[in-house]
C-alpha cells in the first residue's frame, strides 16, 4: 500500500508526531526522580563529620547536604527520612526527618538539619529516635550514625518522598509529635496515591 498516495505529507507528519508523543520514552520522563549527596557516597562509608558526637561516638554530627532532581509533576511538598534498618532494636532506628519541605526546594544544605532555623521556610524537623536524649541537640535535629562497636557496618537509608499535598499532617491526620514510625506509615501506606514518588540511596557506617 502506498501511504503517500492515500495521505498528504502534512497528515503523515502529524501522525508521526502523535506516535512519538505516546511512546514510553515520554511517559517515563517523571520516573527519573533521584536523590544524592555531595557529602556521602552511595554505597560508601559515611565520614566522621556526619557521625554522632555522643553515646561513645566521636563525630561532628553535622547533617549532610542532600540534592534531589526530576520530582514528579504535581508535587506540592517533600518529606525526608534517614533510617537504619540494622539497629539492634527490633524496629530499626530513625536518625533524621524533615516534613513539609516546600515544593520549590531541590536540596537540603549541609548543616541545615542541626537547627530548625536553617531548614527551608515552612519545613518541620520531625522527631527521631534520639528524642529527649540531648545527643542531637534540640528534638527534631539531625542525629548521626552511632552503631554498636563490633557490629557489621550498618546501612543508612536516605529517602525523599514527593507528595501531592501541601501539609502532611493535615492530609494524614497525624500530630507533629508523632513517632517516626507513624510518619513512615503515613508516607508508605496511609497517603496512598498522594505519594507521587520516592527516591533513596543507602550508605554505610561501622566502628
Structure description:
This protein starts with a helix and ends with a strand. The longest helix is centred in the first third of the chain and has 13 residues, at 9-21. With 207 residues, the protein is an alpha+beta fold. A hairpin with a 2-residue loop joins β2 and β3. Helix content is 18%, strand content 26%. The chain is globular, with a radius of gyration of 22 Å.
Give the topology.
Layout: H1 3-6, H2 9-21, H3 24-27, E1 34-36, E2 53-54, E3 57-58, E4 66-69, E5 77-84, E6 93-102, E7 107-108, E8 124-125, E9 154-163, H4 168-172, H5 180-190, E10 195-205
Antiparallel strand pairs: 1-4, 2-3, 4-7, 5-6, 5-9, 6-8, 9-10
Could you write a compact summary of the structure shown?
The chain has 207 residues and is of the alpha+beta class. The chain has helices at residues 3-6, 9-21, 24-27, 168-172, 180-190; strands at residues 34-36, 53-54, 57-58, 66-69, 77-84, 93-102, 107-108, 124-125, 154-163, 195-205.
Mean pLDDT: 88
How much helix is in the residues? 10-25%
Shape: globular
Oligomer: single chain
Core attributes:
three-stranded antiparallel β-sheet, single chain, five-stranded antiparallel β-sheet, 207 residues
Amino acid at each position: 500500500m502506498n501511504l503517500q498516495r492515500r495521505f498528504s505529507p502534512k497528515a503523515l507528519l502529524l501522525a508521526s508526531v502523535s506516535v512519538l508523543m505516546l511512546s514510553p520514552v515520554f511517559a517515563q520522563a517523571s520516573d527519573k526522580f533521584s536523590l544524592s549527596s555531595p557529602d556521602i557516597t552511595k554505597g560508601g562509608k559515611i565520614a566522621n563529620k556526619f557521625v554522632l558526637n555522643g553515646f561513645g561516638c566521636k563525630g561532628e554530627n553535622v547533617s549532610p547536604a542532600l540534592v534531589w532532581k526530576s520530582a514528579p509533576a504535581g508535587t506540592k511538598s517533600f518529606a525526608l527520612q534517614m533510617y537504619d534498618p540494622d539497629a539492634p532494636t527490633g524496629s530499626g532506628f530513625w536518625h533524621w526527618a524533615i516534613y513539609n519541605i516546600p515544593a520549590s526546594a531541590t536540596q537540603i544544605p549541609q548543616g541545615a538539619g542541626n537547627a530548625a532555623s536553617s531548614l527551608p521556610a515552612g519545613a518541620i524537623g520531625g522527631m527521631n529516635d534520639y528524642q529527649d536524649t540531648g545527643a542531637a541537640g534540640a528534638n527534631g535535629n539531625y542525629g548521626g550514625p552511632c552503631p554498636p562497636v563490633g557490629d557489621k557496618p550498618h546501612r543508612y537509608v536516605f529517602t525523599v518522598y514527593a507528595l501531592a499535598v501541601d501539609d502532611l499532617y493535615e492530609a494524614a491526620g497525624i500530630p507533629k509529635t508523632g513517632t517516626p514510625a507513624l510518619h513512615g506509615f503515613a508516607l508508605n501506606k496511609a497517603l496512598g496515591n498522594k505519594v507521587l514518588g520516592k527516591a533513596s540511596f543507602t550508605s554505610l557506617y561501622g566502628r
